[in-house]
Amino acid sequence: AQRVTQPEKLLSVFKGAPVELKCNYSYSGSPELFWYVQYSRQRLQLLLRHISRESIKGFTADLNKGETSFHLKKPFAQEEDSAMYYCALSGYTGNQFYFGTGTSLTVIP
Amino acid sequence: DAGVTQSPTHLIKTRGQHVTLRCSPISGHKSVSWYQQVLGQGPQFIFQYYEKEERGRGNFPDRFSARQFPNYSSELNVNALLLGDSALYLCASSDPGLNTEAFFGQGTRLTVV
Lengths: 109, 113
Fold this sequence. Notes:
A: 0% helix, B: seven-stranded mixed beta sheet, 0% helix
């Protein structure tokens, strides 16, 4: 069965400090991994996906199949990064996602 | 394009009642999925529909059902409501033929009393 684990419910960092949001997964096949973000009063939206190997808003995430992890990183946090972040996996090229419980990131000015 | 739209935005129902939630996908998107988000948890997958056929179902009881119409809009139905069904119900649309990005609606907040 698929499972996504985000061990930190809350994370606070100071502006300009590095930030890392952890995500571990279990899946029997080859999943696609995603990070979704929800800013205050906005709808859930895609931040990045591992197959794109791109950096969005300064965030990057590397899929580590050996450790079954997909941690989200940013070298210098900004106040506008404060949001709820969800790690998700999809084992199907389509619209079936399995989400973690989310990490609420607060960037302190 | 207004994006994915869901109606109603808020709903209060009594235990045992039935509820229907509606979703209009982004124009051109043929896949619609439904998620339940209980307070403090991540969204949980309920159903996926593509071209009016069910393509996936999460671990939810038979009280939950859905359908997709020829215009690709969708309805989620929940029978015999329980207090535990109180949650934010999210709809997401995508076009699997192009990419795997799902676009979410703003959700319907269902409260069962």
